[in-house]
Amino acid sequence: MLTAEKTHLLLTRADGRSESPAHHGIALSAAALADLREAGMVRVEDAPVASARLWVVAGGTAGDPVLDGLLPGVDALSGEKVSAVVAKGRPAALKPVAAHLVETGELEEHKAFLTTRRVPVTTSVKDGLTSHLTAVVLDEADPTAEDVLLLGILQHLNLARRLLPGAHERYDRREFTRRIEALTRSDLLVQAVRAAVAGRGGAIAATAAGVTSD
């Protein structure tokens, strides 16, 4: 299962709603870029997050229906700053990810009036992910690159304490945050998620302030 698919299931509640509606696309963007990088389709520059750029390095197909569905949109991102790409929620991964998860039986479609909600069939994948990530924070499992990204996403979407209760019950808030930061702070895609979430929050605050001042 792709990191983007795991991210979607991790951020999807039992009723099909997102744990973080405002930032779901940002998280999926970072995860999709990680999958495309793993597949050898893109390269992320090893540079500070403010200047690192994304480059498409392979054409053709990736051999995966989700990644192949993303490739047409990815070509246009070559040369753009990674932080800007993630902040814009690009590539837009929600539709291909959700469609494939429906095909594989992880999600099922519930239609009501003019809307369609894709609901997890079981919570087994999400439960397995949160259990493993808890073990990583507790030093009971060695972290993979995927674990680092998922933990960074949860931390910067302000979901880690809620979704990893077994870890935060052992550590106080400061130590819990410190342990995740120590694991994730050097990951460029995590840094891009952090910058995107901070930027989105700043934009919302600025808009609110402007409305209030009128």
What's this, in brief?
By secondary structure, this protein is mainly alpha-helical. The protein contains eleven helices and four strands, in the order ααββαααββαααααα.
Topology:
Blueprint: H1 3-10, H2 24-38, E1 42-44, E2 54-56, H3 65-75, H4 82-87, H5 94-103, E3 107-112, E4 115-120, H6 124-137, H7 145-156, H8 160-163, H9 165-168, H10 173-184, H11 188-213
Antiparallel strand pairs: 1-2, 3-4
Helix pairs in contact: 1-2, 2-7, 2-11, 7-10, 7-11
Structure, explained:
It is globular and about 45 Å long. Helices cover 57% and strands 8% of the residues. α2 (24-38) runs antiparallel to α11 and α7 crosses α10. The chain contains eleven helices and four strands.
The radius of gyration computed from the alpha-carbon positions, rounded to a whole number of angstroms, is 17 Å
Task: Determine the mean pLDDT.
Answer: 89
Number of separate strands: 4
Biggest sheet: strands, sense, closure?
A: 2 strands, antiparallel
Strand order of the largest sheet: 1-2
Structural descriptors:
single chain; 214 residues; mainly alpha; two-stranded antiparallel sheet; 11 helices
